[in-house]
Protein backbone atom coordinates (compact mmCIF):
# COMPACT_ATOMS: atom_id res chain seq x y z
CA UNK A 1 0.00 0.00 0.00
CA UNK A 2 1.39 3.40 -0.98
CA UNK A 3 2.16 5.66 1.93
CA UNK A 4 -0.24 8.65 2.04
CA UNK A 5 1.25 12.10 1.68
CA UNK A 6 1.22 14.58 4.57
CA UNK A 7 -1.40 16.58 2.66
CA UNK A 8 -3.69 13.53 2.44
CA UNK A 9 -3.20 12.83 6.13
CA UNK A 10 -3.91 16.45 7.01
CA UNK A 11 -7.10 16.40 4.94
CA UNK A 12 -8.22 13.21 6.68
CA UNK A 13 -7.48 14.66 10.10
CA UNK A 14 -9.37 17.87 9.36
CA UNK A 15 -12.29 15.87 8.00
CA UNK A 16 -12.71 14.03 11.29
CA UNK A 17 -12.05 17.14 13.35
CA UNK A 18 -14.82 18.93 11.48
CA UNK A 19 -17.18 16.03 11.98
CA UNK A 20 -16.79 16.29 15.73
CA UNK A 21 -17.05 20.09 15.79
CA UNK A 22 -19.84 20.72 13.28
CA UNK A 23 -21.31 17.21 13.19
CA UNK A 24 -21.21 17.15 9.41
CA UNK A 25 -18.75 16.38 6.64
CA UNK A 26 -17.88 19.43 4.55
CA UNK A 27 -15.90 19.87 1.36
CA UNK A 28 -12.19 19.87 2.16
CA UNK A 29 -11.53 22.97 0.06
CA UNK A 30 -13.86 25.13 2.19
CA UNK A 31 -12.51 27.74 4.56
CA UNK A 32 -11.93 25.68 7.72
CA UNK A 33 -11.51 28.69 9.98
CA UNK A 34 -9.11 26.84 12.28
CA UNK A 35 -7.42 28.84 15.01
CA UNK A 36 -3.62 28.80 15.22
CA UNK A 37 -3.77 26.50 18.24
CA UNK A 38 -6.12 24.06 16.52
CA UNK A 39 -3.99 23.99 13.39
CA UNK A 40 -0.84 23.36 15.43
CA UNK A 41 -2.61 20.58 17.31
CA UNK A 42 -3.58 18.83 14.05
CA UNK A 43 -0.11 19.18 12.58
CA UNK A 44 1.37 17.83 15.82
CA UNK A 45 -0.81 14.74 15.53
CA UNK A 46 0.26 14.20 11.95
CA UNK A 47 3.94 13.98 12.81
CA UNK A 48 3.11 11.02 15.07
CA UNK A 49 0.91 9.20 12.55
CA UNK A 50 2.34 6.07 10.93
CA UNK A 51 1.06 4.05 7.98
CA UNK A 52 -1.23 2.04 10.27
CA UNK A 53 -3.37 5.13 10.74
CA UNK A 54 -4.25 5.18 7.06
CA UNK A 55 -5.87 1.84 7.89
CA UNK A 56 -7.69 3.49 10.80
CA UNK A 57 -9.16 6.18 8.55
CA UNK A 58 -10.07 3.56 5.95
CA UNK A 59 -11.89 1.44 8.54
CA UNK A 60 -13.88 4.39 9.88
CA UNK A 61 -14.82 5.52 6.38
CA UNK A 62 -15.96 2.02 5.40
CA UNK A 63 -18.06 1.72 8.54
CA UNK A 64 -19.16 5.33 8.82
CA UNK A 65 -22.80 4.60 9.73
CA UNK A 66 -21.73 2.64 12.81
CA UNK A 67 -18.78 4.77 13.88
CA UNK A 68 -20.42 8.17 13.35
CA UNK A 69 -23.28 7.14 15.64
CA UNK A 70 -20.94 5.93 18.38
CA UNK A 71 -18.50 8.83 18.13
CA UNK A 72 -21.12 11.56 17.97
CA UNK A 73 -22.97 10.18 20.99
CA UNK A 74 -19.75 10.28 23.00
CA UNK A 75 -18.80 13.66 21.57
CA UNK A 76 -22.09 15.14 22.80
CA UNK A 77 -21.53 13.63 26.22
CA UNK A 78 -17.92 14.76 26.36
CA UNK A 79 -18.82 18.37 25.44
CA UNK A 80 -21.43 18.55 28.17
CA UNK A 81 -18.99 17.07 30.64
CA UNK A 82 -16.42 19.75 29.82
CA UNK A 83 -18.97 22.45 30.64
CA UNK A 84 -19.68 21.02 34.09
CA UNK A 85 -16.60 19.06 35.09
CA UNK A 86 -13.27 20.30 33.87
CA UNK A 87 -11.33 17.08 34.29
CA UNK A 88 -12.83 14.08 32.52
CA UNK A 89 -10.33 11.24 32.63
CA UNK A 90 -11.14 9.67 29.29
CA UNK A 91 -10.09 6.32 27.97
CA UNK A 92 -10.00 6.31 24.18
CA UNK A 93 -7.49 5.22 21.58
CA UNK A 94 -5.85 6.11 18.33
CA UNK A 95 -5.48 9.47 16.61
CA UNK A 96 -9.09 9.84 15.43
CA UNK A 97 -10.29 9.52 19.02
CA UNK A 98 -8.06 12.43 20.00
CA UNK A 99 -9.32 14.50 17.09
CA UNK A 100 -12.84 13.83 18.31
CA UNK A 101 -11.76 14.97 21.76
CA UNK A 102 -11.67 11.60 23.56
CA UNK A 103 -8.66 10.95 25.72
CA UNK A 104 -6.20 13.38 27.25
CA UNK A 105 -3.15 11.77 25.69
CA UNK A 106 -1.96 10.81 22.22
CA UNK A 107 -2.04 7.05 21.85
CA UNK A 108 -0.05 6.76 18.62
CA UNK A 109 3.64 6.13 18.16
CA UNK A 110 5.52 4.70 15.23
CA UNK A 111 5.76 0.91 15.34
CA UNK A 112 9.55 1.20 15.32
CA UNK A 113 9.97 2.96 18.65
CA UNK A 114 12.09 6.08 18.93
CA UNK A 115 15.60 5.44 20.29
CA UNK A 116 14.36 2.15 21.81
CA UNK A 117 11.84 4.10 23.92
CA UNK A 118 8.43 2.43 23.89
CA UNK A 119 6.53 5.39 25.40
CA UNK A 120 6.82 9.05 24.56
CA UNK A 121 6.84 10.05 28.22
CA UNK A 122 10.20 8.28 28.61
CA UNK A 123 11.86 10.43 25.94
CA UNK A 124 14.59 12.75 27.27
CA UNK A 125 13.68 16.41 27.66
CA UNK A 126 14.23 18.43 24.50
CA UNK A 127 13.88 22.11 23.65
CA UNK A 128 11.90 23.26 20.63
CA UNK A 129 13.31 25.90 18.27
CA UNK A 130 10.76 28.29 19.84
CA UNK A 131 12.62 27.74 23.16
CA UNK A 132 9.74 25.94 24.88
CA UNK A 133 10.13 22.44 26.26
CA UNK A 134 8.70 19.80 23.93
CA UNK A 135 6.16 17.38 25.37
CA UNK A 136 6.95 13.68 25.16
CA UNK A 137 3.84 11.70 24.25
CA UNK A 138 2.68 8.53 22.53
CA UNK A 139 1.63 5.11 23.82
CA UNK A 140 2.16 2.72 20.89
CA UNK A 141 -1.38 1.31 21.00
CA UNK A 142 -2.42 -0.43 17.78
CA UNK A 143 -5.70 0.39 16.05
CA UNK A 144 -6.85 -3.26 16.16
CA UNK A 145 -7.46 -2.90 19.89
CA UNK A 146 -10.35 -0.54 19.14
CA UNK A 147 -11.58 -1.57 15.69
CA UNK A 148 -10.60 -5.23 15.37
CA UNK A 149 -8.22 -6.42 12.67
CA UNK A 150 -10.62 -5.74 9.78
CA UNK A 151 -12.80 -3.07 11.37
CA UNK A 152 -15.51 -5.55 12.33
CA UNK A 153 -15.54 -4.48 15.98
CA UNK A 154 -17.78 -1.65 17.23
CA UNK A 155 -15.59 0.91 19.08
CA UNK A 156 -15.75 0.46 22.83
CA UNK A 157 -15.07 3.84 24.45
CA UNK A 158 -15.05 4.07 28.23
CA UNK A 159 -15.12 7.44 30.00
CA UNK A 160 -13.94 7.89 33.57
CA UNK A 161 -16.17 10.53 35.16
CA UNK A 162 -17.31 11.50 38.63
CA UNK A 163 -20.32 9.70 40.08
CA UNK A 164 -22.29 12.94 40.06
CA UNK A 165 -21.63 13.45 36.35
CA UNK A 166 -23.06 10.04 35.45
CA UNK A 167 -26.41 11.03 36.97
CA UNK A 168 -26.37 14.46 35.30
CA UNK A 169 -25.58 12.97 31.87
CA UNK A 170 -28.27 10.27 32.12
CA UNK A 171 -30.82 12.98 32.99
CA UNK A 172 -29.60 15.09 30.07
CA UNK A 173 -30.15 12.28 27.58
CA UNK A 174 -33.62 11.58 28.95
CA UNK A 175 -34.83 15.17 29.20
CA UNK A 176 -33.00 17.03 26.41
CA UNK A 177 -32.36 14.31 23.84
CA UNK A 178 -35.67 12.54 24.41
CA UNK A 179 -34.01 9.15 24.91
CA UNK A 180 -34.91 6.35 27.33
CA UNK A 181 -31.94 5.37 29.46
CA UNK A 182 -31.43 2.10 31.36
CA UNK A 183 -28.60 0.37 33.19
CA UNK A 184 -27.61 -3.10 32.06
CA UNK A 185 -27.36 -6.26 34.08
CA UNK A 186 -24.42 -8.58 34.61
CA UNK A 187 -24.64 -12.35 34.67
CA UNK A 188 -22.52 -14.64 36.82
CA UNK A 189 -21.86 -18.06 35.34
CA UNK A 190 -20.08 -21.20 36.52
CA UNK A 191 -16.33 -20.52 36.54
CA UNK A 192 -13.67 -22.91 35.29
CA UNK A 193 -12.55 -23.71 38.86
CA UNK A 194 -16.12 -24.42 39.95
CA UNK A 195 -16.66 -26.50 36.82
CA UNK A 196 -13.58 -28.63 37.51
CA UNK A 197 -14.77 -29.17 41.06
CA UNK A 198 -18.20 -30.31 39.83
CA UNK A 199 -16.58 -32.71 37.34
CA UNK A 200 -14.31 -34.11 40.06
CA UNK A 201 -17.26 -34.65 42.41
CA UNK A 202 -19.19 -36.41 39.64
CA UNK A 203 -16.21 -38.65 38.85
CA UNK A 204 -15.85 -39.60 42.53
CA UNK A 205 -19.54 -40.44 42.85
CA UNK A 206 -19.89 -42.41 39.62
CA UNK A 207 -16.41 -43.84 39.13
CA UNK A 208 -16.33 -42.41 35.60
CA UNK A 209 -13.16 -40.77 34.27
CA UNK A 210 -13.34 -37.99 31.68
CA UNK A 211 -10.56 -37.28 29.20
CA UNK A 212 -9.04 -33.81 29.09
CA UNK A 213 -10.92 -33.02 25.87
CA UNK A 214 -14.20 -34.12 27.47
CA UNK A 215 -13.49 -31.96 30.51
CA UNK A 216 -12.83 -28.95 28.28
CA UNK A 217 -16.11 -29.51 26.46
CA UNK A 218 -18.07 -29.87 29.72
CA UNK A 219 -16.48 -26.74 31.23
CA UNK A 220 -17.27 -24.80 28.05
CA UNK A 221 -20.95 -25.78 28.37
CA UNK A 222 -21.05 -25.13 32.12
CA UNK A 223 -19.64 -21.62 31.56
CA UNK A 224 -22.93 -20.77 29.82
CA UNK A 225 -25.02 -21.71 32.88
CA UNK A 226 -26.37 -18.66 34.72
CA UNK A 227 -25.86 -18.58 38.50
CA UNK A 228 -26.96 -15.05 39.40
CA UNK A 229 -27.35 -11.58 37.94
CA UNK A 230 -26.34 -8.13 39.08
CA UNK A 231 -25.96 -4.55 37.88
CA UNK A 232 -23.33 -2.99 35.63
CA UNK A 233 -23.05 0.51 37.19
CA UNK A 234 -20.91 1.80 34.32
CA UNK A 235 -23.11 0.98 31.33
CA UNK A 236 -26.09 3.05 30.15
CA UNK A 237 -28.17 1.77 27.22
CA UNK A 238 -29.87 4.42 25.04
CA UNK A 239 -33.31 3.50 23.70
CA UNK A 240 -35.41 5.60 21.27
CA UNK A 241 -38.21 7.48 23.01
CA UNK A 242 -40.84 6.36 20.50
CA UNK A 243 -40.24 2.75 21.53
CA UNK A 244 -40.65 0.92 24.79
CA UNK A 245 -37.53 -0.58 26.38
CA UNK A 246 -39.55 -3.81 26.47
CA UNK A 247 -39.51 -3.79 22.67
CA UNK A 248 -35.80 -4.61 22.94
CA UNK A 249 -35.32 -6.46 26.22
CA UNK A 250 -37.11 -7.56 29.37
CA UNK A 251 -36.33 -5.43 32.43
CA UNK A 252 -35.70 -6.47 36.02
CA UNK A 253 -38.05 -5.61 38.85
CA UNK A 254 -35.44 -3.58 40.73
CA UNK A 255 -34.10 -0.17 39.68
CA UNK A 256 -30.67 1.43 40.07
CA UNK A 257 -30.39 5.18 40.70
CA UNK A 258 -34.01 5.45 39.65
CA UNK A 259 -33.40 3.88 36.23
CA UNK A 260 -34.59 0.47 34.97
CA UNK A 261 -32.16 -2.44 34.61
CA UNK A 262 -32.21 -4.50 31.43
CA UNK A 263 -32.41 -8.26 31.75
CA UNK A 264 -29.93 -8.72 28.91
CA UNK A 265 -26.31 -7.66 29.10
CA UNK A 266 -25.04 -4.77 26.99
CA UNK A 267 -23.11 -6.96 24.56
CA UNK A 268 -26.30 -8.93 23.89
CA UNK A 269 -27.88 -5.68 22.69
CA UNK A 270 -25.10 -3.54 21.26
CA UNK A 271 -25.75 -4.38 17.62
CA UNK A 272 -29.23 -2.85 18.00
CA UNK A 273 -28.89 -0.27 20.77
CA UNK A 274 -26.06 2.24 21.40
CA UNK A 275 -24.70 2.55 24.92
CA UNK A 276 -22.49 4.79 27.03
CA UNK A 277 -19.80 3.23 29.17
CA UNK A 278 -19.21 5.68 32.04
CA UNK A 279 -16.98 4.46 34.84
CA UNK A 280 -17.89 6.33 38.05
CA UNK A 281 -14.59 7.19 39.76
CA UNK A 282 -13.48 9.21 42.75
CA UNK A 283 -10.14 10.35 41.32
CA UNK A 284 -11.81 12.73 38.84
CA UNK A 285 -13.30 14.70 41.73
CA UNK A 286 -10.03 14.44 43.62
CA UNK A 287 -7.99 15.86 40.74
CA UNK A 288 -10.44 18.69 40.25
CA UNK A 289 -10.19 19.58 43.94
CA UNK A 290 -6.38 19.57 43.72
CA UNK A 291 -6.51 21.90 40.74
CA UNK A 292 -8.90 24.28 42.52
CA UNK A 293 -6.98 24.34 45.82
CA UNK A 294 -3.51 24.77 44.29
CA UNK A 295 -4.39 26.99 41.33
CA UNK A 296 -2.27 24.73 39.10
CA UNK A 297 -4.10 23.59 35.99
CA UNK A 298 -3.92 19.84 35.59
CA UNK A 299 -2.90 20.29 31.95
CA UNK A 300 0.18 22.22 33.08
CA UNK A 301 1.47 19.39 35.27
CA UNK A 302 4.57 17.82 33.65
CA UNK A 303 3.82 14.21 32.81
CA UNK A 304 6.97 12.26 33.57
CA UNK A 305 7.57 9.38 35.90
CA UNK A 306 10.39 10.88 38.00
CA UNK A 307 8.29 11.95 40.98
CA UNK A 308 6.17 8.79 41.08
CA UNK A 309 9.28 6.61 40.85
CA UNK A 310 10.88 8.58 43.69
CA UNK A 311 7.79 8.11 45.86
CA UNK A 312 7.85 4.39 45.05
CA UNK A 313 11.51 4.16 46.03
CA UNK A 314 10.71 5.79 49.40
CA UNK A 315 7.63 3.59 49.90
CA UNK A 316 5.44 6.72 49.98
CA UNK A 317 2.60 5.87 47.60
CA UNK A 318 -0.32 6.36 50.00
CA UNK A 319 -3.14 8.21 48.28
CA UNK A 320 -1.87 7.58 44.75
CA UNK A 321 -4.54 6.08 42.47
CA UNK A 322 -3.82 2.45 41.49
CA UNK A 323 -0.36 2.45 43.11
CA UNK A 324 -1.18 3.12 46.77
CA UNK A 325 -2.37 -0.40 47.65
CA UNK A 326 -0.38 -2.95 49.61
CA UNK A 327 -0.64 -5.42 46.71
CA UNK A 328 0.91 -3.04 44.17
CA UNK A 329 3.55 -1.90 46.68
CA UNK A 330 4.73 -5.51 46.94
CA UNK A 331 4.79 -5.76 43.16
CA UNK A 332 6.94 -2.64 42.93
CA UNK A 333 9.51 -4.04 45.37
CA UNK A 334 9.91 -7.14 43.20
CA UNK A 335 9.74 -5.43 39.79
CA UNK A 336 11.87 -2.33 40.62
CA UNK A 337 10.39 0.00 37.95
CA UNK A 338 12.71 2.55 36.36
CA UNK A 339 10.56 4.20 33.66
CA UNK A 340 7.04 5.28 32.77
CA UNK A 341 6.89 2.16 30.62
CA UNK A 342 7.68 -0.01 33.66
CA UNK A 343 4.90 1.64 35.67
CA UNK A 344 2.41 0.85 32.91
CA UNK A 345 3.60 -2.76 32.98
CA UNK A 346 2.95 -2.93 36.73
CA UNK A 347 -0.53 -1.47 36.34
CA UNK A 348 -1.36 -3.94 33.59
CA UNK A 349 -0.08 -6.91 35.58
CA UNK A 350 -1.98 -5.78 38.69
CA UNK A 351 -5.28 -5.71 36.77
CA UNK A 352 -4.76 -8.98 34.92
CA UNK A 353 -5.76 -12.41 36.16
CA UNK A 354 -3.05 -15.04 36.29
CA UNK A 355 -0.47 -12.51 35.10
CA UNK A 356 1.49 -11.77 38.29
CA UNK A 357 1.39 -14.44 41.01
CA UNK A 358 3.03 -17.72 39.99
CA UNK A 359 3.83 -16.13 36.65
CA UNK A 360 5.51 -12.74 36.06
CA UNK A 361 6.52 -12.53 39.72
CA UNK A 362 8.42 -15.83 39.46
CA UNK A 363 10.09 -14.79 36.22
CA UNK A 364 11.45 -11.64 37.86
CA UNK A 365 12.46 -13.26 41.16
CA UNK A 366 14.37 -15.98 39.30
CA UNK A 367 16.09 -13.50 37.01
CA UNK A 368 14.71 -15.11 33.86
CA UNK A 369 13.77 -11.79 32.27
CA UNK A 370 13.36 -8.08 32.98
CA UNK A 371 10.09 -6.27 33.62
CA UNK A 372 10.41 -4.53 30.24
CA UNK A 373 10.42 -7.95 28.52
CA UNK A 374 7.13 -9.14 30.03
CA UNK A 375 3.89 -8.58 28.06
CA UNK A 376 1.72 -7.00 30.76
CA UNK A 377 -1.29 -6.07 28.61
CA UNK A 378 -3.13 -7.63 25.68
CA UNK A 379 -1.62 -5.02 23.34
CA UNK A 380 1.91 -6.03 24.38
CA UNK A 381 1.34 -9.53 23.01
CA UNK A 382 0.42 -8.16 19.59
CA UNK A 383 3.26 -5.63 19.48
CA UNK A 384 5.86 -8.19 20.60
CA UNK A 385 4.84 -10.78 18.02
CA UNK A 386 4.67 -8.27 15.15
CA UNK A 387 8.04 -6.76 16.07
CA UNK A 388 9.55 -10.26 15.90
CA UNK A 389 8.21 -10.81 12.39
CA UNK A 390 4.88 -12.62 12.84
CA UNK A 391 2.13 -11.72 10.35
CA UNK A 392 -0.27 -9.14 11.81
CA UNK A 393 -3.40 -11.28 11.41
CA UNK A 394 -1.79 -14.18 13.28
CA UNK A 395 -0.38 -11.86 15.93
CA UNK A 396 -3.81 -10.38 16.50
CA UNK A 397 -5.40 -13.84 16.73
CA UNK A 398 -2.83 -15.01 19.28
CA UNK A 399 -3.16 -11.82 21.33
CA UNK A 400 -6.92 -12.44 21.48
CA UNK A 401 -6.68 -16.05 22.66
CA UNK A 402 -4.09 -15.08 25.28
CA UNK A 403 -5.95 -12.08 26.65
CA UNK A 404 -9.21 -14.08 26.88
CA UNK A 405 -7.41 -16.90 28.72
CA UNK A 406 -8.25 -19.57 26.15
CA UNK A 407 -4.85 -21.25 26.64
CA UNK A 408 -5.08 -21.26 30.43
CA UNK A 409 -8.72 -22.40 30.41
CA UNK A 410 -8.05 -25.29 28.06
CA UNK A 411 -10.33 -23.92 25.35
CA UNK A 412 -7.88 -24.94 22.59
CA UNK A 413 -7.03 -28.39 21.36
CA UNK A 414 -3.56 -29.85 21.91
CA UNK A 415 -2.83 -29.28 18.22
CA UNK A 416 -3.78 -25.59 18.47
CA UNK A 417 -1.60 -25.12 21.55
CA UNK A 418 1.31 -26.78 19.76
CA UNK A 419 0.76 -24.52 16.74
CA UNK A 420 0.89 -21.47 19.02
CA UNK A 421 4.12 -22.62 20.67
CA UNK A 422 5.75 -23.43 17.30
CA UNK A 423 4.78 -20.03 15.89
CA UNK A 424 6.51 -18.28 18.80
CA UNK A 425 9.57 -20.49 18.53
CA UNK A 426 9.86 -19.83 14.78
CA UNK A 427 10.05 -16.05 15.25
CA UNK A 428 12.61 -16.39 18.04
CA UNK A 429 10.52 -15.74 21.16
CA UNK A 430 12.16 -17.11 24.35
CA UNK A 431 10.79 -20.34 25.85
CA UNK A 432 9.39 -18.59 28.92
CA UNK A 433 7.19 -16.32 26.77
CA UNK A 434 4.78 -19.05 25.62
CA UNK A 435 4.63 -20.56 29.11
CA UNK A 436 3.80 -17.15 30.54
CA UNK A 437 1.00 -16.66 27.99
CA UNK A 438 -0.43 -20.10 28.76
CA UNK A 439 -1.00 -19.13 32.41
CA UNK A 440 -2.90 -15.89 31.74
CA UNK A 441 -6.65 -15.95 32.36
CA UNK A 442 -7.31 -12.28 31.53
CA UNK A 443 -5.14 -9.43 30.27
CA UNK A 444 -5.84 -5.74 30.83
CA UNK A 445 -6.05 -3.32 27.85
CA UNK A 446 -3.08 -1.01 27.49
CA UNK A 447 -5.21 2.13 27.04
CA UNK A 448 -6.62 1.67 30.54
CA UNK A 449 -3.20 0.98 32.05
CA UNK A 450 -1.74 4.07 30.33
CA UNK A 451 -4.59 6.28 31.52
CA UNK A 452 -4.41 5.11 35.13
CA UNK A 453 -0.62 5.44 35.20
CA UNK A 454 -0.79 8.95 33.76
CA UNK A 455 -3.31 9.88 36.47
CA UNK A 456 -0.99 8.46 39.14
CA UNK A 457 1.94 10.45 37.74
CA UNK A 458 -0.10 13.67 37.92
CA UNK A 459 -1.22 12.91 41.48
CA UNK A 460 2.39 12.22 42.48
CA UNK A 461 3.42 15.67 41.23
CA UNK A 462 0.73 17.35 43.36
CA UNK A 463 1.67 15.22 46.37
CA UNK A 464 5.33 16.16 46.04
CA UNK A 465 4.64 19.90 45.57
CA UNK A 466 1.82 20.23 48.11
CA UNK A 467 2.30 17.37 50.62
CA UNK A 468 0.23 18.84 53.48
CA UNK A 469 -2.70 19.76 51.25
CA UNK A 470 -2.59 16.41 49.50
CA UNK A 471 -2.58 14.53 52.78
CA UNK A 472 -5.50 16.54 54.16
CA UNK A 473 -7.60 15.99 51.02
CA UNK A 474 -6.78 12.29 50.84
CA UNK A 475 -7.59 11.63 54.50
**DSSP strand content:** 5-15%
Structural class call reads alpha+beta
| Strand arrangement, major sheet | 1-2-7-4-3
Distance between the termini: 56 Å
Low-confidence stretches: 1-11, 13-53, 65-69, 76-116
Instruction: Estimate the helix proportion, in percent.
Output: 40-55%
Number of domains: 3
Q: Mean pLDDT score, rounded?
A: 75
Q: What does the overall shape look like?
A: globular
Q: List the secondary-structure elements in sequence, H or E.
A: HHHHEHHEHEHHEEEHEHHHHHHHHHHH
Radius of gyration: 24 Å
Q: Given the structure, what is the number of helices?
A: 21
The main β sheet shows up as: 5 strands, mixed
How would you characterize this protein structure?
With 475 residues, the protein is of the alpha+beta class. The protein has three domains: 6-61 and 87-155, no CATH class; 163-190 and 225-280, glyoxalase-related enzyme like fold (2-Layer Sandwich); 306-447, no CATH class. It is 50% helix and 10% strand. The protein has 21 helices and seven strands. It has helices spanning 6-22, 36-47, 52-62, 64-84, 94-100, 144-147, 163-175, 192-206, 212-222, 266-269, 283-294, 306-313, 326-335, 340-351, 356-365, 378-387, 392-403, 414-426, 431-437, 446-465, 467-474; strands spanning 89-91, 158-161, 179-189, 226-240, 251-256, 259-262, 275-280. The chain has a five-stranded mixed beta sheet. Helix 3 (52-62) crosses helix 4, helix 13 packs across helix 14 (340-351) and helix 20 (446-465) packs across helix 21 (467-474). It is globular, with a radius of gyration of 24 Å. The termini are far apart. 37% of the residues are buried.
Amino acid sequence: MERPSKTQLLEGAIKFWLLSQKQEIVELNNNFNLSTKEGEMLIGYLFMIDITNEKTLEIINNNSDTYNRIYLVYNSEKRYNEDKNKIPSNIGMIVCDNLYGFGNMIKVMRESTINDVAYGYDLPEKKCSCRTTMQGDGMNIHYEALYGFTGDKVPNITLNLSKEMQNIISNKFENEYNINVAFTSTVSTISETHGLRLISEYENKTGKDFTEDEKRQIINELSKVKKADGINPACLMLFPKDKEILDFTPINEDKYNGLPITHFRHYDLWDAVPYLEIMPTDFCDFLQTLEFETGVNINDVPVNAKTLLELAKNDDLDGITEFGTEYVSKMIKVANPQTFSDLIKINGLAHGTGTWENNAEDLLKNGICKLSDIPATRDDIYNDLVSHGLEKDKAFYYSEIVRKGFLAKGRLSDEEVKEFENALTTIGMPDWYAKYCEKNLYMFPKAHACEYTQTAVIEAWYKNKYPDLYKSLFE
